[in-house]
Amino acid sequence: VREAVVSTQSTGFRVQAPPEETSQKKDDHSYTFDLAVVGGGSGGLACAKEAAKLGAKVCVFDFVHPSPYKTTWGLGGTCLNVGCIPKKLMHTASIYGELMEDAASFGWDDAAKNDHSWSSMVGSVQGHIKKQNWSLRIDLQEKDVTYYNEYAAFVDSHTLKGVNKRGKEREVTANKIVLAMGGRPNYPDIPGASEYAITSDDIFSLKYNPGKTLCVGASYISLECAGFLHGLGIDTTVMVRSILLRGFDEDCAQKIGEYMEAIGVKFLRPATPTKIECVKEAADGNPPELKVTFLQDGVEKSETYNTVLFAIGRTPLTSKVNPDSIGLKYESNGKVPVNEAEQTNVENVYALGDIIKAPELTPLAIQSGRLLARRLFGESKLLTDYQNVPTTVFTPIEYGCCGLSEEAAIAKYGAENIEVYHTKHTPTEQVVREPSERDGFNYAKMVCVKSENEKVVGLHYLGPHAGEVIGGFALGLTMGATKSDFDRLVGIHPTSSEVFTTLKITKSSGESIEDEDC
Amino acid sequence: AVVSTQSTGNVKLFIENQPMANVVKRVTVNGFTEYLRAVEEYSNSSLHMFALFTGALDEQGKSWCPDCVRADPVIEEATKSLPECSCLITAYIDRPTWKDMNNNFRKSTDLQLKCIPTLIKLGTEKRLQEKECAKKALVSMLFEEE
């Protein structure tokens, strides 16, 4: 089918040809594509590019429905546009503020924190993101992956219908289909939420300084956002229903909360918002004034903020892909069950990334996307290993971890079979700075299984450069390292990572852990 | 009909009125100052602005930059599918200017030109560099209306 795009304003016309029919298809089938991927994020693009590299004829559907605040973005998914990348950049911006304070004790004259320009930072961050959006477009074109900027949904198990922003439709058939649409932030069902509040979809491109901000949620998204906002000099409050960072090691989650409180982030807990009203509209580049009514310990209170950011959970976009038309099995929260080969209950349909029940992390989505492509279109039989996936929470005190939390290890192996080694530590870079409320929180913990030669099943680190510290050690966990393997390892000095090579004190001994100067 | 008007400044403006094609403003400039003047003169919110930075031509009409020579016919052909209300500024850069590592094109924070040919959709982060400019599919992708 040849499409003609007719421009009504000129006398000419432009004809858009369908993809080349000359390239060989991988298997014997009569569908247009060997592979159609729904979702142009970390997992989807990795899968599509790997498949194309192996000779498959591939297309990617990517489309972003604007947020209630009307924010939208380009190719690349959550990580590049409204997740990992801008988060890490803004976290870095706020850390610079801290370092500038500490610089004075290193001899830097007048290094005191200057005024921070929100719009300047957003300009730099968005400039980078847009460069990457474009690079990805070039990449797909160069790798022969057809890109449709369209919202796709199933017609049947081999047919997808894409709709572009002008409402124009296109049908495409494919032998294999990979779902990698990711998720979007949840709004609570309270008056004023979607009218006046924002989410992580919006904060990274906000045109004005957010002003006095309320972050609702105990997730890492809420705490990371609150963390960098506070670090940039913004009056920040976190509203939490119960515990912080559910699912993470409770010890470390608690210490993160204490650190954030110590540096001046306000916490309202336990509390839940019940209503948001607009007292004064946004105008002239200034944020609005929002009155938030909330319940704290059963008492109704209210407070005014300029910005309310909800980070109370994310829902996979499964329901939007017309799953019932193919009988796709999915849970009420949108998660799609898959087998170890990422295959759904529909034989030719696969799912990966944030829409499946696995750690919602870019490198994991990329890995599973690539390996899936190699199994489908190459000779590989390798499955993705979902165990011991390291991660880092980029709160003002960073938290890196790999493997099991202390609680999960106790649940799995029994309390008597677990030995926990731990210590506080002070990185050398921090010994010179003036004593401050930030001191005394850096911490390292190693969770071992006694009956397996003290095999290390969990590593936890609170301190600077947490991702850099834990990333390499994750290899030890995947290879079954024991406590004595770590002890035999000679650390690098002076660094924070060496703390894992000299752990001595166990929780069970009851001994106190004092700061270890490097 | 190709209409050439000599303006009082150093900016030469050629308007090509091609049958069966959109009307696209073509502007040719030499050097950085002329480039800035052209951007100021032709930028307005209704025009899609594009800029091509390419090697200057000698008396025989040949460019000193081989990648530019390769890209030229591809870009010319692709201009036929530029959206309506587009303006393409072609900025010629002579060899000595380009070889000077401190030239204004490189130093400009807006442009940060790293190589030629470079084709940019002004006001966006979209650009094609060197061999990318000779690829029909990429140039079309840069020119197409979003």
What does this structure look like?
The complex is a heterodimer of chains A (518) and B (146). Chain A is 27% helix and 24% strand. Chain A has 518 residues and is of the alpha/beta class. In chain A, the strands form six sheets. In chain A, strands 3, 4, 5, 6, 7, 8 and 18 form a seven-stranded mixed beta sheet that branches. In chain A, strands 19-20-23-22-21-24 form a six-stranded mixed beta sheet. The model of chain A is unreliable at 1-23 (pLDDT under 50). Chain B starts with a strand and ends with a helix. Chain B is globular, with a radius of gyration of 14 Å. Chain A binds chain B through residues 7, 9-12, 14, 127, 130-131, 133-134, 137-138, 141-142, and chain B through 19-23, 80-81, 84, 124-128, 132, 135, 137-138, 141.
Quick description:
The complex is a heterodimer of chains A (518) and B (146). By secondary structure, chain A is of the alpha/beta class.
Write down the Rg of chain B.
14 Å
Oligomer: heterodimer
Radius of gyration of chain A: 25 Å
Distance between the termini of chain A: 69 Å
Provide the structure class of chain B.
Answer: alpha/beta
Largest sheet of chain A: 7 strands, mixed
How do the strands line up in the largest sheet of chain B?
1-2-3-5-4-6-7
The amount of beta strand of chain B, in percent, is: 25-35%
Strand proportion of chain A: 15-25%
- Spans of chain A of 5+ residues with little confidence (pLDDT < 50)? 1-23
What is the global morphology of chain B?
globular
Instruction: Give the overall shape of chain A, derived from the CA principal axes.
Output: globular
Give the number of helices of chain B: 5
Are there runs of chain B of 5+ residues with pLDDT below 50, and where?
Answer: 1-21
Search tags:
heterodimer, A: 518 residues, alpha/beta, seven-stranded mixed β-sheet, six-stranded mixed β-sheet, 12 helices
Element layout with pairings:
The complex is a heterodimer of chains A (518) and B (146).
Chain A: E1 3-5, E2 14-16, E3 33-38, H1 42-53, E4 58-61, H2 77-82, H3 84-103, H4 118-142, E5 145-148, E6 151-156, E7 159-163, E8 169-179, E9 183-185, H5 193-196, H6 200-203, E10 213-216, H7 220-231, E11 236-239, H8 250-262, E12 266-268, E13 271-280, E14 289-296, E15 299-305, E16 307-310, E17 314-316, E18 349-351, H9 362-377, E19 391-393, E20 399-403, H10 406-413, E21 418-426, E22 443-449, E23 455-462, H11 466-478, H12 483-488, E24 515-517
Parallel strand pairs in A: 3-4, 3-8, 4-5, 8-18, 10-11, 10-16, 11-12, 21-24
Antiparallel strand pairs in A: 1-2, 6-7, 7-8, 9-17, 13-14, 14-15, 19-20, 20-23, 21-22, 22-23
Helix pairs in contact in A: 1-9, 3-4, 3-7
Chain B: E1 2-6, E2 12-16, E3 24-30, H1 31-42, E4 48-55, H2 66-78, E5 86-93, H3 95-99, H4 104-107, E6 118-121, E7 127-129, H5 136-143
Parallel strand pairs in B: 3-5, 4-5
Antiparallel strand pairs in B: 1-2, 2-3, 4-6, 6-7
